[in-house]
Amino acid sequence: MPARKVIATAWALVTHHPREAMLPLVVIQIPVAILTGAVLAVLLLTVFGDQEINTNDGGQLLALLLVSGTQALFAQVARGSTIVSLAGVIRGQPLTLTQALDPAFSRMGGLLALVVLVSAGVLISFVTLIGLVLLPYMILRFALAFEAFMLEDLGPWPALRRSWELMRGHMLRMLGVVLLTAVILFGPFLFISLMGEAVRGDRNTQVILGAVYSVVQGVLLVPIVAFVTATTTVFYLNLREPDRV
């Protein structure tokens, strides 16, 4: 399946099946955004209330890292549930919300390990010039790791190996999918970023508006994440089950 058809199929999947594509993200991503935004705002207004907002401060940095880590973990749980839900639609066996959520929550530890492995690989790549050069190649080779983890019931390391094997001979197509997706989503991402730049005012106003922006960002990212997840899920199933896609 050429890159443009992958994109078109993913778009049709999200627009024709919005419940299956976005509901798992809505029930996880938005509540987590509300909770983490509120927690960070309360900490900045109380525990760190007599300090300027500064990520160089050890306490504030730790709080930010904990909040960001929580958001990142549940973002992958939401994405994993979306992968399962979209695969069900493609296979002609739509799942209930509970059926889509259960595999991701029951395998949350494995998802966390996979996130850590991928993040560690990216960080290590930044250490050397060779690593930076190879980073785009490595990202493409491991692009289907989360799909393999969720849909083949593999562990983190086997999922990475499975993605490596599946991507053999399909790197250029995946690169085309990534570039087309980036072009399509450039405008929405720019809009969301500019919204964040609009957060102004005194310290307390910035904290409160920052929490509100976090929630709004979580809402706006739902269709974007759904579409990106649909592209990789379609690509994966086209390799694994070409008769269905």
Task: Kindly summarize this structure in a few lines.
The chain has about 240 residues and is mainly alpha-helical. It has helices spanning about 5-15, 20-45, 60-90, 95-105, 110-125, 130-140, 145-150, 155-165, 170-195, 205-240.
What's the helical proportion of residues? over 70%
Task: State the end-to-end distance.
Answer: 9 Å
Oligomer: single chain
Strand content: under 5%
Instruction: Spell out the helices and strands N to C.
Output: HHHHHHHHHH
What characteristic shape results from the CA principal axes?
A: globular
Counting helices, strands and paired strands, the structural category is mainly alpha
Question: What is the element layout, followed by pairings?
Answer:
Layout (H helix, E strand, L loop, with lengths): L2 H14 L1 H28 L12 H33 L6 H10 L1 H18 L3 H13 L3 H7 L4 H11 L4 H27 L5 H38 L5
Helix pairs in contact: 1-2, 1-9, 1-10, 2-3, 2-10, 3-4, 3-5, 3-7, 3-10, 5-8, 7-8, 9-10
Explain this structure:
The chain has helices at 3-16, 18-45, 58-90, 97-106, 108-125, 129-141, 145-151, 156-166, 171-197, 203-240. By secondary structure, it is an all-alpha fold. α1 (3-16) crosses α2 (18-45) and α5 (108-125) crosses α8 (156-166). The termini are close together. It is globular. The protein is built from 10 helices and no strands.
Overview features:
245 residues, mainly alpha, 10 helices, 81% helix, 0% strand, globular
